[in-house]
Structure formats: structure tokens, C-alpha cells
Amino acid sequence: MELEIAQQGRTRLLTLNRPSALNAFDPVLSRLVKTALEDADRDSSVATVVLTGTGERAFCAGGDLKAMTTGSVDDNRVFSGITRADRSKPVIAAVNGLAYGGGFELVLSCDLVVAAEHATFALREVSHGIIAAAGGLVRLSRHIGDKRAMDLALTGRPITAETALSWGLVNDVVPAGRLLETSLALAESINRNAPLAVRASRAVIEASAAFDEATAWRVNDEQNRFIAGTADAAEGPSAFAQKRAPVWSGR
Length: 251
Fold this sequence. Notes:
The chain is α/β, with parallel strands linked by helices and 251 residues long. It has 11 helices and 10 strands. α1 (27-42) packs parallel to α3 (73-84), α5 crosses α6 and α9 runs antiparallel to α10 (213-228). The longest helix has 16 residues, at 27-42. It starts with a strand and ends in a 10-residue tail after the last helix. The mean pLDDT is 95.
């Protein structure tokens, strides 16, 4: 199976499983990942998603260039739809190796990133006569600024995990043997919190990155009004006052 799906508590673990092709996306994998992410976002038993790849060589080498030569425009749009999807639950990328081209764009579409020490990141599209149109050119400068984004997008050169950490592209760099453990622990630290408050916080941060400040404040106020009326907003203070762990209902 090109995509392995497992459940770890309230975390859905998705593993790209095309190691012979450096976990590159072909039309089949694109559709599987798109469906799996949509299912996880709808599933009330899922609070977070961890996305990784099989092996230690590659997280994802992007689009399978051989498949691209025979695929349709619609096939490419499926992958672009993954990186442009409007999701409500946090997705963590556990980058177990190189993340090139669309693989890097997939990382940029995630909310949090944990990288193995040997991981590398690159937008290689210009070396193949195409552009990083699935979010790389749109998102990269928000993370690292225009000059660094121009460097990576125009040269195609890779950067190390440590450089990605220092530039703010990843949250943590760990030994390869601890990658999945660290990523799942990060997911669990999110899972312990009120799910509606987590999603609302994520929505406001996304709005602040994507829109002007006035729009971001509107989203902030809308989310705050919504959260104030939830049962979980009452449960949090009650649990604190009673010196007990909160029991979130997601309502």
C-alpha cells in the first residue's frame, strides 16, 4: 500500500510508503493522502495528524517526474489540493529524510515540523523547468523572508535540518531514531488540550499569516466569541478551581 494509516491514541499517523521512489507522489498516492487527510479532519476520534515517510532516506521527493510525464493535469491538481486544503486540525510533519520539491511544499503546509538530523530541504523545481506551484513560492517567504526564499527558489540548493531550524522552518531537530517518538509526543501534548480551543487558536494564527491585520482581528474575535460559549470554556476554569484534570467534551 502506498500510504500506511495507523491510529496512536487520538493521533492519526500517515506514512508515505513508496521508498523505491523516495516516497514521491504519483496519482495514486496523491489521492490516498488527500482522502486520508480529509477523513482525519472529519473524524471526531482524531485530534492531530502526524505525516511521515518510510525509511530514513526520504520524507518525500515531491512529484514523481516519470508519473508526471504520463499523468493528466487533474492528477497534478490533486497534489496541489493537498497543500492548499482548508484543514481544522493540526498536522505535524515528521521529516525522516530529504524533503524536495513537492515534499518541501508538503512540509510547508503542515502546522508543526520535527526533522531528523540528516533531513534536507530544497525546492528543486527550477532545475526541472517548472515552478513550485503547490505552495512553495507562496508560503516560503512568510517563514524565512524574501531574500532566503529567493535563494532557495531560484538556486534549488538544499539546506540542512539545522539551517532549517535556525531559519524557523522546523520546530525541532532530533536523531533519526527519536523522530517518530518525538513527533507523537508533540501530538500528544496538543491532544491533552481542549480540542475546540486548539482548532480556534490554529485558525487565528493561520489568518494572521494569510490576511491583513484587520481581517486577522475579525477572525480572532469570531473565534473568541465561539469559544466563550462552549462547554469546554466552562470546564477549564472549573477543573482548575477544583484542582482536577479537565474533561473535554469538544462542545
